[in-house]
Amino acid sequence: MYQCRKSRFRLSLFFGDSLFRRSPIFDQRMSTRAAQEFRYEKLTWPEINDAVDLGKVCILPCGAVEQHGHHLPLDVDIICPTEIARGAGREIPDKMLVLPTVCYGYTGHVMDFPGTINNDFEHFMHHVLDITKSLAYHGFKKIILLNGHGSNMPNLDLVARRANLETDAECVLAAWWNLLTVDKTFLPRWRQSKFPGGCSHACELETSLYLYLDGGNVRKDLIKSGTISFNDENNPFNWVDLFAAGPATVISWTSSYSGTGVLGDAELATPEKGREAYEECVKQLVRFVTYFKDRPKDQRRDLHRKPPTMPIPWGQRSVQE
Question: Domain for residue 54, yes or no?
Answer without folding.
Answer: yes
